[in-house]
Amino acid sequence: MATTTTMTGAAFDQLPFDKFHRWELLHGELIAVPAKTPRHQIIVGMLSADLYEYLRQNGGGIAVWGCEYALGEDDRLTPDVGILFREKWESVDRNKTPIPLPPDIAVEVIDPGDLAEYSLRKIWTYLGSGVKEVWQIVPEIEIVMIYRGVKSVTVLDVAESLSTPLLPGWEISVRQIFSARRQP
Amino acid sequence: MSGAAFDQLPYEEGRRWELVQGEMIAVSSATLEHQGIVLDLGANLRQYLRREPRGGVALDVEFALSDDNRLRPDLAILLGEHWTSVDRKKVPIPLAPDIAVEVQSPSARANDIMRKIRTYLAAGVQEVWQVAPEFQTVLIYRGAKSITVLEIGDSLSTLLLPGWELPLREIFTA
C-alpha cells in the first residue's frame, strides 16, 4: 500500500495546479484519481450532454463535469458529473473553484483503477454532505446503482431505464449509457 | 484461461490468484484487520453451526463455480446436502456455497469486487456478504437487485441461519 497523505481542505485548496495528476481529498486523505479510460470519458460525455440539454430546456439547473466541490472541511471531491438545481446553480460563483456546496446529484463512473473502499466512502461522503442521489455507473458489469440514502440502493441493469423524481420527464435507457463502450 | 487449465497450475505457497470469467485476478495479501475479522466471524459461525448442525463454514477454500470461475471467498457457508455431499479432501469444491463472505481489503478494486459478487449470485450463491471494514458497513446481496446495507448500529442475521445474529460492532472490534 502507498503511504497516505493527510491534510485539511484549506491546505488542499492551496496546492499548486498539477497538470498531469488529479487529486481528491477524502476525510483529509489525499487520493490520486486514476487517468480516465476512453470508455469512461465517452459515458461521461454522453450522459453530461444529455442531462445538460434536458436541464437547459426546462431551466431546472445545470449538469457539469469535472468540477470540484468542497463538501466539508476535509472533503474535496470531483464527481464525474455534478447536477446543480436552479436555486443552487444561481447562487454559486461560476468563476470559482471549488464549488462551496454539494451538488444535488453526483455521478461516478467506476474505472478499472478505482479502489472499492474509496468508491464506497465517496458515496457515503456525498450523501452525508447533502447530495440527494448518487449514481454509480459500473461499465464492467453494465449496471447503474442509485443511492438515495445510506440504506437505499437501487440496482438497474441494461433492460431498465435510469430516471429519478428529481428530474421529471428525463430518462435514459441503461443500454444506451453503455452502448458506446462495446468494441465494434 | 479455462477453469481446467487453472486447476492444473502448480501449487503455490499462499496461492494468490482467482479466476473470474476466465481472467486471472491477483488476490492481495491480507492485512491484520482483514484476518481478524475473518477469524472472528468464522469462529462465530462455526460455533453456531456446531450447535445447530445445518452445515459448515470454510475459510479461504477455492470453489469451482463454473467452467471459467474459481473463487476463494474469505468465508463460505455450505448448508444441508451441500455440506454433507462435498468431498472434504478435494479442492476446488465443485459447487457453489450457500453464503459467500468477502472482506474488502484496502487494495481491492471496485470492479473486481462487483464482478465477483455477480459471479457468486449467478452461480447460485444465495447470499453474498460484502464486509467493508473501512466504513464499518456490511452489504448483503440476495440477488442481483437486492442489496441491504447494514451500519454499525445494526446486526447481521439471515433467514438461512435461523437464530444466528451478530452485531456489526462485534465484527469490527477486531
State the main characteristics.
A: alpha+beta, 6-stranded mixed sheet, two-stranded antiparallel sheet, 29% strand, B: 174 residues, alpha+beta, 12 strands
Structure in a nutshell:
The complex is a heterodimer of chains A (184) and B (174). In chain A, 28% of the residues lie in helices and 29% in strands.
Describe this structure in words.
The complex is a heterodimer of chains A (184) and B (174). Chain A is an alpha+beta fold. Chain A is 28% helix and 29% strand. Chain A is built from five helices and twelve strands. Chain A is globular. Chain A starts with 8 loop residues before the first helix and ends in a 5-residue tail after the last helix. The mean pLDDT of chain A is 90. Chain B is α+β, with helices and mostly antiparallel strands. Chain B has a six-stranded mixed β-sheet, with helices on both faces. Chain B has five helices and twelve strands. The longest helix of chain B has 20 residues, at 32-51. Chain B starts with a helix and ends with a helix. The chains are: A alpha+beta (184), B alpha+beta (174). At the A-B interface, helix 4 of A face helix 4 and strand 10 of B.
